[in-house]
Specification:
Length: 128
């Protein structure tokens, strides 16, 4: 894990223009981003707009985890990529985690290295 932010896509209490500014800032800053309240029966366009914003600043192959019903008996975790995010069924019980430029998938895990032990960026130091 590395720096991250969490953004609600619900515009019931926050104007959509404000949410779009937050999405753009998070995408530009390369934050790992958790999106919650991504889609309801009446709010169906917000996730598509969020995805389009992220695709302006992220590689289409950026890993994305879609977690539905977290910690419940019917929990489902789907790993995909940013360009395929909208192909997965998402609802109000879903949290969408969008990786950053160093996020990778490995053995059904989404991992963002922090630079320890030579993983991640070139500034990594061996701590042994």
């Amino acid at each position: 894990m590395h720096d991250f932010c969490a953004i609600s896509l619900s515009d019931l209490l926050t104007p959509w223009e404000t949410i779009e500014k937050r999405l753009t800032a998070a995408a530009q800053a390369d934050f790992i981003t958790a999106l919650y309240n991504p889609k309801s029966q009446t709010r169906t366009q917000q996730l598509a707009t969020a995805t389009a914003i992220f695709l302006q600043y992220r590689d289409p192959n950026t890993p994305v985890a879609i977690v539905r019903s977290a910690y419940r008996p019917d929990e489902q975790i789907t790993l995909t990529t940013l360009d395929k995010l909208l192909d997965i069924n998402v609802d109000m019980l879903t949290t969408v985690l969008i990786g950053n430029q160093t996020t990778r998938t490995h053995n059904n895990w989404m991992i963002t290295p922090r630079g320890y032990l030579g993983f991640g960026d070139s500034k990594a130091t061996d701590i042994s």
